[in-house]
Amino acid sequence: QVRLIESGGGLVQGGGSLRLSCAASGRAFRTYTWAWFRQAPGREREFVASINWSGTSTYYLDSVKSRFTISRDSAEDTLYLQMNSLKPDDSAVYFCATDPLIAAQTMSVIEWSRVSFWGQGTQVTVSS
Fold it and tell me: Nearest-CA neighbor of 34 among 70, 87, 10, 1?
């Protein structure tokens, strides 16, 4: 059974940084695509960033480009999201997700419910 456990969320002032982690277990994830999504109250879950299985291609939501960096430690089956220059609009529950078939670029446009595996989410709150 796949388990994805996010950590690293919290309360931070605007302009600050946080690093989210997602620890995976239960499968051989070597060829999976990985992604971060987020959901703010009253809003749809939205794509934030994705990375392909080899770590050679990354994709970002336009509003987080140059501020967020997605990375992966394949040896540890851990996904990261480094978030810098945080803004109040970044406040949301952040979810880790993975899928064996969806390509990293497709992850940026696909309906989120089509992604196979999800973590429980971690809250990020950015104060102004």
Answer: 70
Report d(CA 17, CA 67) in Å as an integer.
9
Express each pLDDT in 58-114 by its tens digit: 999 999 999 999 999 988 889 999 999 999 999 999 999 999 999 999 999 999 999
Mean pLDDT score, 10-18: 98
Question: What is the distance between the alpha carbons of residues 84 and 80, in angstroms, rounded to a whole number?
Answer: 13
Supply the mean pLDDT for the chain: 95
Structure tokens at 119: 């973590």
- Using DSSP's 3-state secondary structure scheme, residue 120 falls into coil
Helices (H), 11-116: 104-107
94-16-81 Cα angle (round to 5): 35
In sequence order, the 6+-apart residues with CB closer than 8 A to the CB of 54 are none
Percent of the chain at pLDDT above 70? Answer: 100
